[in-house]
Amino acid sequence: MQITFIGGGNMASAIISGLVKQGGHGISVVEPSADKRAQLAQTYGVTALEQPPQQLSTDDVVVLAVKPQQLKDVCLSLAPVLGNALVVSIAAGVGIAALARWLGSDRIVRVMPNTPAMVGKGVSGLFAPLGVGASDKKNAADIMAAVGRVFWLESESGIDDITAISGSGPAYVFYFIESMIAEARALGFDDATARQLVLGTFDGAVALAKQSDLDVATLRANVTSKGGTTERAIARFEAEGVKAAIQAGMQDCRARSVELGQILSQD
Ligand SMILES: NC(=O)C1=CN([C@@H]2O[C@H](COP(=O)(O)OP(=O)(O)OC[C@H]3O[C@@H](n4cnc5c(N)ncnc54)[C@H](OP(=O)(O)O)[C@@H]3O)[C@@H](O)[C@H]2O)C=CC1
Ligand SMILES: O=C(O)[C@@H]1CCC=N1
Where does the Pyrroline-5-carboxylate reductase catalytic N-terminal domain start and stop, copy by copy (predicted)? Predict the structure, then answer.
């Protein structure tokens, strides 16, 4: 596959790193920053361009990896050279109808990836409208499968849903990790030890949740001895509304995805 990324920032780099490890693809990246171009070429051995190619072919796949706010201008400038290339947009919010209007093509798949793609542990939600063919869907899924797990969504609003779960989710997890490391430091552990204690705990808990036949609520109950220490911590979390805050945060995240789509898709 010949894949051209438009935008070589955080998420594009994460996907490119997985594709390069897999091998067998021709990858180029269009990126305005000279420093980022040099870094991408050096780290991944990809072709880094300042401007999009003069013409794309029907067999090409173009991955739109710029910020949602940059997407309209990027699509309008791509339209004359796009030909009939398949477009994969990883941008939050902006819907297929607006993309199709700006690109003059509806051969589009939307994807919501996440940054653990960088280490091959990404989770991506994909949506393709009815007119997109099976081989285009397979190509889009193959790109994302190179960096992790792939889930097809039945409706485009599923992209907003999954943004609130897995797209933004790594930041929620890092927030929890950061909070625990800060408290471990406050208890007197040095930075490296605090990090190992907390990351080891996450690693172990996730591995146990994946391997166990028990659901996570039971696994939590198994740590929580009656009258013991964990019970106090969980009681404080509940009293402070931590679970409700996490759920409300996810709802706000989803609402922002919808709002971005409404604001940025107007014309
Ligand atoms: N980060 C994440 O966890 C996730 C991000 N996404 C989506 O991925 C997209 C990219 O996000 P992210 O990688 O974090 O953002 P970044 O800002 O890291 O990357 C965007 C890149 O696009 C470059 N750029 C700007 N204008 C153009 C242009 N005209 N042509 C080519 N490149 C251009 C930017 O350069 P410069 O900095 O010089 O402006 C920047 O390097 C967003 O739409 C986001 O919604 C989706 C899922 C997860
Ligand atoms: O914060 C954002 O808007 C992007 C989309 C999902 C994760 N990062």
Answer: 2-93
